[in-house]
Amino acid sequence: MAFFGFKDIDKLSEVDMAVYRFIVDHDEQVPYMRVRDLAKGAHVSNSSVMRFIHKIGYSSFPEFKVSFKTENQDLMKSNDDILNIITRDVFPNDIEKTIKLVAHIMLDADNVIFFGMGASGAIAKYAARQAASLGFNSLAVEDPYYPLIQQLSNASNNVLITLSVSGKTTELVETLNDFVNSADTVLVSITGNIESPIARIGRYALTYKVKETRIHKYYDLTSQVPCVYLVDGLLKELRNQDNARRLN
């Protein structure tokens, strides 16, 4: 039996759910409550509490309390602060200045392209959508073999922002090499590796420090939170500069 692992939630009645939610919301107090205390807190009857206890597999209320207390303690044993994902020291000291410079270039661009693969590609789609919402001509490219050079061959004043945690992805580097000598496209990167080819190949690099995490050799579980943080910061600054320009 496991309260938090109870799988048949769909079989619980509305009254049962009231008891269930109260227990979840008062997990530290429940092991010290009596049946009538729990019933009063959940605004149900004593018999409703006991029907719920039996329904989830316990023969008595004391048995439930002992099991629940142990289960709850095991659940909270981790000492990791799971929300302490990002701090200011993840970014370079001059990151705000770089963000302002990139936003200024984007402000006058005819086309803003966000380029990435995998999880970075998903963030590229998010960034492009947000930029479009701000009124900028933006698109996301997730396919490294997309004919981007051909599409932009007759376009000028482009900003190509590449997202890559490692900054070493071969397919991305090969695509960016086509734009190295382009006078019409400014290359920008958002990457976790300031020494990487992708960071070095462009005019500006928005960088951060993150520990790369992989499982089963191929599956990348590296946090993308710093990247999203930079994307949101960039879009916020873009909006601020756009609003300031409209007021002048």
From TrEMBL:
Classification via Gene3D superfamilies: Glucose-6-phosphate isomerase like protein, domain 1 (3.40.50.10490), Winged helix-like DNA-binding domain superfamily/Winged helix DNA-binding domain (1.10.10.10)
> Which keywords has UniProt assigned to this entry?
DNA-binding, Transcription, Transcription regulation
- The keyword Hydrolase belongs to this UniProt entry's keyword annotation: no
Domain of life, per lineage: Bacteria
Q: In Gene Ontology terms, what is a biological process of this protein?
A: carbohydrate derivative metabolic process
A Pfam family annotated for this UniProt entry: SIS
Domain HTH rpiR-type residues, every copy: 1-75
What protein is this chain from?
RpiR family transcriptional regulator
